[in-house]
Amino acid sequence: MENRNPKPDPEKGRLSPEEIRELAAAAVRDIPERVKKWAAVMGITYGRITIRNQKSRWASCSTLGNLNFNCLMMLMPETIRDYLVVHELCHRKEMNHSKRFWAEVEAVIPDYRACEKWLKTNGESIMGRMW
What we know:
Blueprint: H1 17-42, E1 49-52, E2 59-61, E3 67-70, H2 78-90, H3 99-108, H4 112-127
Helix pairs in contact: 1-2, 2-3
């Protein structure tokens, strides 16, 4: 089910439990590798990685450095998945969304604003498939 460049389709209905399981299995293979790659590039450590099927959040980082990612990320282009991974890893340096945080993100993903725009434009239709 891994699609390299999926295009969100608002006409698609809810995901079946089987489709969600397939997305979660793909995410377990994909996301930890992305985290490992970007953490090495950024010189950042992290704790446990968890894949969930959440209805309202793409990812999060705890104060202990544990990272949570939504399996629906697998419906996004790779560049957006990379952005979300980098975003959470930057929280290991700045646990907020201050100017310093965004400077950390921009140092790794200079066009992060385009990723944010993509999420604002397409995120709701993807998230809506979980309901």
